[in-house]
Each structure stands twice: as C-alpha cells, then as structure tokens.
C-alpha cells in the first residue's frame, strides 16, 4: 500500500481542528458558568458572583471570535485547498503545489470517469467516517435529552434551570451539531449510491462529465453547509479496513 502523504490536512485542517476543540471546551465552560450563576446568590457572595459574571462575558466574546474565525476563514480555506487538489488530481493539472500521495486511489485515465470514481471514493470514506462519529454523538444526545426530560418532569426544578438546560441542548455544539452530522452522512450516502449507479451505467462523454460535476457540487456544497470536520482519529482507525474494502469495490466495478 502506498504511503499516504497529506500536506493539506497538516497545513489547513489541523488549525481548524484545534480551533474546534477550543470552541467546544469554551462552550462547556460557559455552560458550567451559566449554571453556577443560578446556584450562587448575588447577595450572599457578591464578589464570587461578579467574578463569574465577568468571566462569562470574556469567554462569550472569545467563543464568538473563535467561531467566526473557524466558520468564515479556517473552514473555507481548508475546503478550498482540498477542492483544488481534487480537481488537480482528476484532470492531471497543477492548480496547487500542495499535492497528496495515496489520498486518491484509482488509476482511471479518462478524466470524466476519474471524476466520478474519485468522488465515489471520497463519499465512501466520508459516509463510513461519519457513521462512526455519529455513534458517539447519538449516545451523547440521548443522554442529554433524557436528563432534560427528567428535569422538566420534576415539579421541583426551577424554571431558570430548565431555560439554561434548553439553551445548552439546542445550541450549535449539541443538538444542532448532531443534526448537521446526520444530514451530511445522508448526503454522502446519496452521492455514493448515485455515483455507483452512474459508473455501472452506459453513460459516457459530456453526459458523464455533467453528472460528475453536478454531484461533485452537491457533495461539496453539503460539506460547506454542514460545517462538520471529519475526525482524523476516526479516519486513522478505519483506514486499513476501508482501504481494503475500496479495493474490492474497484474490482467489482
């Protein structure tokens, strides 16, 4: 198996992953501080309450700035770099000097077919990586929803606590993130199935190229809308098995 070299992951996706980890960490700190303000009485501990309130404001601003940088700079920059390399590989041109080795694994020479096959490979890996990521995410969401339902069914639960829990559950980092991941997985599966059928069909020439461009656009726009970074740790965990399975798929087609 060819040694995999991916400078785009190191240069563009690593900073994005670090920013997302910091953002996630800050979110849970902010959630903890919001709950703390409900527990600590201002009149009984004015200094502590003021310190928590001030820390909350500072962290909210920091969280907001990091999210802006991630969503509107780091994420588009990384995706643009990956798309440039994708197109360079498919059409054998040099839109970028940052080329990968062993990232795309097919030897098709016809560029129209190569576009579809390379997209098939991308979506095959994506749907499997997202499936494993979602196993953990679904468990987390199930726990959060269960705890939330328990809280709202207890008559002794203060209304302020219910509101705070609702804000956490319905935030970008919890429920919305899970929905985005589920949607992206469904999109990747749809794209994979379509590309598989197209390769097996008798479609050729400009029609094949048009279909490839259409579904390339759908997949890439889906990634942009979802804003989900696929886990490198999950990829490394699945890579050997998925690479072997991909070889079987290529032989089948």
Question: How does this model look, in words?
Answer:
This protein has helices at residues 7-39, 46-91, 111-153, 159-169, 175-200, 205-226, 232-252. With 253 residues, the protein is mainly α. Helix 1 (7-39) runs antiparallel to helix 2 and helix 3 (111-153) packs antiparallel against helix 5 (175-200). The protein starts with 6 loop residues before the first helix and ends with a helix. The model has no long low-confidence stretch (mean pLDDT 91).
Features:
80% helix, 7 helices, mainly alpha, 0% strand, single chain, 253 residues
- Shape assignment: elongated
Fraction of residues in H or I helices: over 70%
| Strand segment count | 0
Strand content: under 5%
Rg for CA atoms: 23 Å
What pattern of helices and strands is seen along the backbone?
A: HHHHHHH
Summarize the biggest pleated sheet: none
Can you tell me the residue ranges where pLDDT is under 50 for at least 5 consecutive residues?
none
Total helical elements: 7
Distance between the first and last residues' Cα: 20 Å
Average pLDDT works out at: 91
The chain-level structural class is mainly alpha
Concise synopsis of the structure shown:
The chain has 253 residues and is an all-alpha fold.
Provide the fold topology:
Elements: H1 7-39, H2 46-91, H3 111-153, H4 159-169, H5 175-200, H6 205-226, H7 232-252
